Amino acid sequence: MNAAYLIQTAEQSGGQLLAEGEYIRIVNIKRLPVSLVEAIKSQKKNLLKILKQNEKAEKAGFVIALTGELYTQTLGRNSVVYVEQIGSRWEAWRETHRPGKKKPIHFKIIAASEEFEYVLLKAKNYFDYIEQKRSGGNLKKVKTG
Questions:
Q1: What letter would DSSP give residue 144?
Q2: Half-sphere exposure of 23 (CA within 13 A, CB side)
């Protein structure tokens, strides 16, 4: 079983896995089958990587769509930014939709890399850029002295 599947199975069984340093805390461990707990122990390294990745994505404002694979954040009423693992690479892109239409009317790739943190940073920088544009692009310079 892969690590993302273990996290999803634990959640479906009423448990929750939390990264705490180099440990995994299992909330409601009694609800989980013994075989699942053993699988969690055997996949500790991979699970920690995904759990920490989920935390970083949430701190950046993303919603976990598929744990360890897909994260989303709304940019506006009709635009969404996605960060998705595709094969061994991570990609961030924006789609803009017209209400009631399935196909996007605009598509923009923000970043692609094998490193999740790099793609997440680029996506966060993109949100900062859009916010700056929406606020008129005025950045105040503070004189230090």
A1: -
A2: 4
**Interatomic CA distance for residues 11 and 78, integer angstroms:** 30
**Amino acid sitting at position 89:** R
Paired strand residues for 25: 18
* Rg for the chain, CA atoms, rounded: 19
Kindly report, residue by residue over 29-63, the tens digit of the pLDDT: 999 999 999 999 999 999 999 999 999 999 999 99
Give per-residue burial for 85-123: e unless 16+ CB within 10 Å, then b: beeeebbbbbbeeeeeeeebeeeeebbeeeebeebbbbb
Which of 125, 116, 124 lies closest to 84 in space, CA to CA? Answer: 116
Name which of 121, 63, 59 is nearest 90 in CA terms. 121
Phi, psi of 143 (to 5 degrees): -80, 125
Q: State the angle between helix axes of 34-42 and 44-59 in degrees (0 to 180), rounded to the nearest 10.
A: 80
- Contact yes or no for 95/82 (Cβ under 8 A): yes
Q: How far is residue 115's CA from residue 43's CA, in Å, rounded to a whole number?
A: 21
